Amino acid sequence: MHEHYPSVRKGLLQLIFSGSFMKRWNDKLRPVELVEVDKQAHKMFVAYILFLLNSREMPEEERLHLGEEVILGGIYEYLYRLVITDINPPIFYRIRSNPEHYQQLTSWVLEQLQPRIQPLGPRFWEGLCYYLKDPQSKGLAGKILSGAHIFASSWEFGLIKGINPGDDELKEIESNFDRLLDQHFDLSGMQEIVQSPQTGLGGLVNLCGRLRFQKRWSQTPRIPETSVLGHMFIVACFAYFFSLSVGACPQRRLNNFFAGLIHDLPELLTRDIISPVKQSVQRIRDLIREYEQKELEQRVFTLLQAGEYQELTRRLRYYLGTEGHSEFDNTIILNSRVHVMDHMEMHQKYNQNRFDPKDGKLLKVCDNLAAFIEAYTATRNGITNEQLQQAQWKIRSRYQREAILGSVHIGALLADFD
Question: Is CATH 1.20.1440.230 the right assignment for the domain spanning 10-415?
Answer without folding.
Answer: no
